From TrEMBL:
Name used for this protein in its record: Phosphate butyryltransferase
Organism, as annotated: Candidatus Wallbacteria bacterium HGW-Wallbacteria-1
Keywords assigned: Acyltransferase, Transferase
PANTHER family, per the entry: PHOSPHATE ACETYLTRANSFERASE
Taxon lineage: Bacteria, Candidatus Walliibacteriota
Record Gene3D superfamilies: Isopropylmalate Dehydrogenase
Length: 297
């Protein structure tokens, strides 16, 4: 089973990846990069206010890095994206930049990191009860995805899971319950997604089931009590949520309420994984997000 211990070993075992950081003048950002740099995962290219960055790097003990001085928020994001676009860096990380500003630079049709795929956020979570990493998508980018967009979101999550070593990931399409109801359109989407899978969609995915309640997806015992026969229950690797709000609430509830959880997040669908979390997230979450991205490339 995939664990963050395994992800960290993957990230440490490869050549350090140059990471472009959009506004690196944040204490938790610098501390996370210091730890990742010390472990040989990455070399930071920090875009932002050079005086602030130098002071923070000195306090944290970060010595190996590059600085590109920039104080305008929009230009900072564009410069960080350009470092990936021109091949200087192989990964992009959100520092203190606003998510909207950074993603506008990423989505620029000429100078951004578009690939033709839609981008989506994939949160990787490990909790003691399950003793494995599972993925929640999309709680960060697409507010109200329709059926076609959900197909792209799930495909991105499958790509992430396989890149991290899950050879045949299993996925559940989360809804409030297993019953299909016309007044709950997410259940209709779940049926259509499973049909698409049965017709050869989502290459690399081992099983897809839905609509499925969260308890059934995470607990085989819950499925047994409900009389549900499932190849995914209790072993789902990917949880596809109905919309951004539900995914965001689920992920942040785990982040703030579950002891000893491990959490990281990346955006998939661009020309490289994008390390993207809330500016309020701690150093540990940023460090684990860096490890996720570094383990993928």
């Amino acid at each position: 089973m995939l664990s963050f211990s395994r992800i960290l070993n993957m990230a440490r075992s490869r050549k350090p990846r140059p990471v472009a950081v959009s506004d690196g003048a944040g204490a938790s950002v610098i501390k996370a990069l210091k730890k990742a740099t010390d472990e040989g995962m990455c070399v930071p290219h920090l875009v932002g206010d050079s005086d602030k960055i130098i002071a923070l790097a000195k306090d944290a003990g970060l010595r190996e890095y590059e600085i590109i001085h920039c104080t305008d928020p929009v230009e900072t994001a564009k410069t960080a994206v350009s470092l990936v676009k021109n091949g200087t860096c192989s990964l992009l990380m959100k520092g203190k930049s606003d998510t909207k500003t950074l993603m506008q630079a990423v989505l620029d049709r000429e100078k951004g990191l578009r690939t033709g795929n839609r981008m989506s956020h994939v949160a990787a979570v490990e909790v003691p009860l399950l003793q494995k990493v599972f993925f929640i998508t999309d709680g960060g980018i697409n507010p109200h995805p329709d059926l076609e967009l959900k197909k792209m979101i799930l495909a991105n999550a499958v790509t992430a899971a396989i890149a991290l070593g899950i050879k045949k990931p299993k996925a559940a399409v989360l809804c409030a319950q297993e019953a299909v109801k016309n007044d709950q359109p997410e259940t209709l989407d779940a049926v259509a997604l499973v049909e698409h899978f049965n017709n050869g969609g989502f290459p690399g995915l081992d099983f897809l089931e839905g609509p499925m309640a969260t308890d059934v997806a995470l607990s085989r015992r819950a499925a047994t009590i409900k009389g549900i026969e499932s190849s995914v229950s209790g072993c789902a690797d990917i949880l596809l949520v109905p919309d951004l709000a539900s995914g965001n609430i689920m992920a942040k509830s785990i982040l703030y309420l579950v002891p000893d959880r491990i959490f990281g997040g990346v955006v998939m669908g661009a020309s490289c994984p994008i390390i993207l979390l809330s500016r309020a997230d701690e150093e540990t979450e940023k460090y684990h997000s860096i490890s996720l991205a570094c383990a993928m490339v």
